[in-house]
């Protein structure tokens, strides 16, 4: 009995240990999809006149860190990925799985802008303010950067000295120097407001200037992964006493949104704290990706999710729900992505926005690769094929030409049928109608009598020829006519 009890106890311990290991493995496995590259507009002509969109996603765990997973086989990968936009499901025509994250090959150039307005002193936990929680989360993010490869700059913003502070950002590839920038940030002051629009505008300008110094002969902008992260707990709010000429109101919003759209940079908005106080609509318009966090742990996960580490990235390319680029203007559509794993689990991403210019047509950011073109040809979207459009135009042209030819040949027959027929039968070369047929004597004009009875003179019975049209008719005056002598036959 003791031996059986011992065996039973060992078996139960083994089961519990296996369950614990399984639970730990599931907890550290992939639970979601993280968007690592914002949607970009892709030119797919001449295969499709409809513009294409492309995005990169990667599986991530509960902490927002990318993890490697067992993906579906190559022949099933395309069917395992879906795109959703405003309740509409879109099937991508191209999905490519990379062997690893391109973040290990391309430097990440990151500018982090931290709101230090007075409200950042509000508590987010026991004895912890929003500012302190944000600084702790950023420190963990800096610790994960690639030493000597990635470049990072950390700057505060509020409503005083906004533009010079952001333009003075120093990008560094050293963790220790980045930590020094983080520790040097001043504490939030009660009189500090939030110049959110100006922070986004100036942040994009600063990143553009930094990229101009990094791109040298032999390198291109595509060799880097630039992103601007704007962290705030409220909304754009400036008042008298703040910096002059700060962007504010609808016009300021429009200028900041236009700057983001024209730059093509990956601008990420993070709302931290009480969600009722965060202007999520403004963040959505100002950012290509938006995240909301209420705790420091959530903020850590979000920061890690903004940058790919080591994972199997998926490039997903799909046709736009709108038929042309003009239809995309001012729409700012949102897209979410899902991946069904071989074990049946479904990984979902948070919605990501494609930012379009407020006015004008969005520009293509790249041309589809040969692999994407081949995949699009295999799908053959009948409603948006460029060759279908060309063929339709040729058919319309041929139909109009045929109609004009029929009108040219058959209308004369319908209107001048007799003249047309006599002209064809005249045999006079190319002339169909005579110019001057003249006056011809008819049987009435030249009437004769043949086989007359005896006693009749045929010459006397022949009627005189009627006058031709060329003769002149002279009408005598009435006085002359009255004098005419009437001779009667008295016989």
UniProtKB/TrEMBL annotation:
A Pfam family: VWA
Residue segments, region Disordered: 453-491
Keyword Membrane tagged: yes
Compositionally biased intervals (Polar residues): 466-479
Native organism taxonomy: Bacteria, Pseudomonadati, Acidobacteriota, Terriglobia, Terriglobales
Protein name: VWFA domain-containing protein
Domain VWFA: 109-287
Biased composition (Basic and acidic residues): 480-491
Signal peptide start and end residues: 1-25
Aminoacyl-tRNA synthetase found in the keyword field: no
Species this protein is from: Edaphobacter dinghuensis
């Amino acid at each position: 009995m003791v031996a059986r009890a011992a065996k039973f106890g060992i078996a139960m311990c083994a089961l519990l240990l296996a369950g614990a290991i399984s639970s730990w493995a599931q907890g550290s496995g992939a639970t979601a999809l993280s968007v690592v590259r914002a949607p970009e507009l892709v030119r797919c002509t001449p295969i499709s006149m409809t513009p294409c969109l492309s995005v990169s996603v990667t599986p991530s765990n509960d902490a927002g860190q990318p993890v490697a997973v067992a993906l579906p086989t190559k022949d099933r990968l395309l069917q395992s990925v879906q795109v959703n936009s405003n309740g509409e499901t879109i099937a991508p025509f191209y999905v490519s799985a990379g062997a690893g994250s391109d973040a290990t090959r391309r430097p990440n150039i990151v500018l982090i802008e931290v709101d230090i307005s007075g409200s950042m002193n509000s508590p987010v936990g026991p004895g912890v303010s929003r500012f302190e929680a944000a600084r702790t989360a950023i420190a963990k993010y800096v610790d994960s950067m690639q030493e000597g490869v990635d470049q990072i700059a950390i700057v505060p913003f509020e409503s005083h000295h906004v533009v010079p502070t952001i333009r003075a950002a120093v990008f560094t590839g050293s963790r220790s120097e980045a930590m020094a920038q983080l520790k040097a940030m001043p504490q939030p002051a009660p009189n500090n407001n939030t110049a959110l629009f100006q922070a986004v505008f100036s942040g994009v300008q600063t990143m553009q200037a930094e990229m101009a110094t990094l791109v040298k002969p032999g390198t291109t902008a595509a060799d880097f992964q630039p992103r601007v992260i704007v962290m705030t707990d409220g909304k754009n709010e400036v008042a008298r006493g703040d910096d002059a000429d700060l962007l504010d109101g609808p016009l300021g919003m429009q200028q900041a949104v236009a700057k983001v759209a024209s730059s093509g940079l990956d601008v990420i908005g993070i709302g931290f704290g009480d969600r009722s106080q965060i202007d999520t609509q403004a963040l959505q318009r100002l950012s290509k990706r938006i995240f909301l966090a209420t705790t420091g742990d959530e903020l850590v996960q979000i920061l890690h999710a903004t940058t790919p580490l080591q994972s199997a990235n998926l490039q997903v390319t799909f046709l736009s729900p709108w038929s042309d680029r003009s239809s995309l203007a001012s729409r700012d559509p949102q897209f979410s992505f899902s991946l069904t794993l071989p074990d049946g689990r479904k990984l979902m991403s948070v919605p990501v926005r494609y930012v379009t210019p407020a006015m004008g047509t969005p520009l293509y950011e790249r041309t589809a690769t040969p692999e994407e073109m081949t995949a699009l040809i295999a799908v053959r979207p009948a409603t948006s094929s460029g060759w279908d459009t060309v063929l339709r135009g040729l058919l319309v042209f041929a139909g109009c030409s045929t109609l004009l030819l029929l009108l040219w040949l058959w209308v004369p027959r319908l209107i001048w049928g007799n003249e047309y027929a006599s002209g064809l039968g005249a045999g006079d070369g190319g002339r169909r109608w005579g110019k001057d047929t003249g006056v011809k004597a008819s049987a009435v004009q030249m009437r004769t009598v043949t086989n007359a009875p005896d006693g009749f003179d045929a010459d006397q019975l022949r009627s005189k020829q009627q006058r031709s049209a060329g003769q002149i008719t002279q009408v005598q005056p009435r006085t002359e006519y009255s004098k005419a002598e009437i001779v009667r036959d008295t016989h």
